[in-house]
Amino acid sequence: MNRMEPNIKIEEIIGKYLKQEVSAEEEAYLQEWLQADASHQQEYEEMAEIWRASEGVLLQHQFNTSNAWTSINARITALPSATRVRTFKLLPWTKMAVAAAIIGLIATGVWRYYSVTTAGSMQHITARYNNQQVKLPDGSVVFLRKNAVLNYPRSFSEKERIVRLEGDAFFDVTTNAKAPFRINAFHSIVEVLGTSFMISATSAADKIWVASGKIMFTEEDKAGNHLILSAGQKAVFTDGQFTQGGVKDSNYLAWQNGVLNFNNTPLQQVIETLNDYYNASVILSPEIAAKADHIMVTARFDNQDLPYVLEEIKLTTGLELKRDAQKNFMLYELQPAAGK
């Protein structure tokens, strides 16, 4: 293996890789290192566990170095001995240095799952590299999908609770009849007293799925154009129009729990769900697209990767799977040979 630097620098490269700041040369070096020995993959997973341990620390608005060390060290210690003892192993002082470096990076704001900035009395949170949980001043909890942006005051008034959302988030709102909870989305306003629901707020459309309670879904600046939605209902607002329907599955929460459920679901809807969940580009050949609403899929996937899911769908539907010239996954139908 070509070594860019002494072996001890692999920890720095792994840290940059987890932050998605690694260069092409460093990533190539990391991949070579991982493939050189099976124990290297195990060491990588152990350091990734330290990274994940930092998530709870990052939810604190005020960073506490002592608490951070306690949290991360507890996670390292809690790893099963079979995980911590390797044929190839970082020396104890090295692992401590890595953990300490992680804490230092977090403390200086370099290594973050999401960014938190304060402007006056407002908090601005962006879920940068992962889904994030945020607890609001009233005790309400918001689960932000990766890349979602949430703005809210550091303290709510006694008469109303107002936040602004861009992206996808699931809200579990604390009940307070005296202070309605309002979410300003791109094109609409959602108002509740206490309930749980999912919102997707984008420049193209605002969408909502209600898990419990009731909400009022209103066009921004047009109070007369609104819907009242109850548990088990969903709606989309786009181009000044609402479209309402029933929630048929829980796939709108797949980004949060990793579970995809399809029960006699049209193939076209399945593909749309997969593309949203995996941020992928799965397409259908023209002849399959023409009849995709009549090809039904029944399957359940729990945190499986996309190639595995597509292979299962291929077997379920009897279709074929390939990569097209643009490297998109394509489902198509095998045509019989000429003359047969």
UniProtKB/TrEMBL annotation:
One of its GO terms (molecular function) is sigma factor antagonist activity. Residues 126-215 form the FecR protein domain. Residues 260-323 form the Protein FecR C-terminal domain. It comes from the Bacteria. Keywords: Membrane, Transmembrane, Transmembrane helix. The chain crosses the membrane at residues 96-114. It holds the Pfam family FecR_C. InterPro entries: FecR (IPR006860), FecR_C (IPR032508), Ferrdict_sens_TM (IPR012373). This is DUF4974 domain-containing protein.
